[in-house]
Amino acid sequence: MANGRFNVLGEPLVPCSITPLTGFRRDGCCAEHADDPGQHTVCTRLTGDFLAFSREQGNDLSTPRPEYGFPGLKPGDHWCVCAARWVEALLAGHAPPIILAATDESILDAVSLETLVAYAVDRP
After folding, report:
1. Tell me, which fold does domain 1-124 have in CATH?
2. Is 51's pLDDT higher than 80?
3. InterPro entries from the xrefs (predicted)?
4. Cα–Cα distance between 45 and 93 in angstroms, integer?
5. Which of 57, 58, 102, 117 stands 20 to 30 A from 38 (CA)?
C-alpha cells in the first residue's frame, strides 16, 4: 500500500508511475499530503489534448526542465495531476483518462465515482 492511503475503489493505493517518476514527493504515488497545496492525487494517462490544455492554463508539462530533473511529458505517460486541474479539464472537455487503482480517494470530495469510472482505463 502506498503511503497507507486508499484509492477511489477503497483498495490500497498503488503507484502511478516510476518512469517518469511522479507524485508530489516523487515516490511514484498520487497520494494526498497535507503539505501539497496542489493535491497531486489523480493518476492520469496523459493525452496530447490535455497537455495542450495544461500548457494553455500556464502549466507546461511537455517541455523538459533538466535543471529540475524534469524530463518533459508526452502522450501515454502516467502522471499525478492536481485534483483541481483534472476537474477544470473535465469541465472544459479535456480531461485525460485516469487509473482508478492509483488515484487517491480524496478526489471523491470533488468528483463522483461514476464520473471517474467513465474516464478510467482500468474500469472495475
Report:
1. Phenylalanyl-tRNA Synthetase; Chain B, domain 1 (3.30.56)
2. yes
3. DUF2237 (IPR018714)
4. 16
5. 117
